[in-house]
Amino acid sequence: MRQNYTNIFSWLIILALALTINIAFAFQANRSDTTLHFGKSKAGNTKSSSKTGLHLALPPLKPAVTSAAKINVMRTDDKLLTDVQVYPNPVTDQINIKYILSRNALVTVKVMDVLGNEVITLVSQRIGSGEQSFTYPISNKLSRGFYFIRVVAGTESVIKRISVL
Q1: Is 62 helix (H, G, I), strand (E, B) or coil?
Q2: What is the average pLDDT value for the chain, to the nearest integer?
Q3: Who's near 115: CB < 8 A, 6+ residues apart?
Q4: How many CB atoms lie within 10 A of CB 40?
Q5: Tally of domains in the chain
């Protein structure tokens, strides 16, 4: 008889505790979709969790509902500037530059001498995403020798060496 009474009493305590917690959650006035704040100040505003309030992060109330919001997450391996090609090499009369941009960016293409001094700026403008190519005539603009083509898109930079005949 005593064990039967203890089991019934234990289940009643658990049931009463569960009902109390559910009622406390149901009548909580300051509730958002995923966060509950406990404790109120005298003015009726929620206290911050660093003081006496309790902050709980809960899963969404409707877990079967999916959001249509698209989030663009940048990966560390996601390159802005790829497949930079400079041809023909050696250059005689014109230079062809081809590259691929993964998104819109400010692109600057410069010709530098061996010491790193800027000789000519070929392009300096905002360019759309996709494969880009352009041709630049160099007759009477560059003397014979070695030069570097520096292609800068956003914060990424690619340098290619060319020789002019």
Answers
A1: coil
A2: 78
A3: none
A4: 14
A5: 2
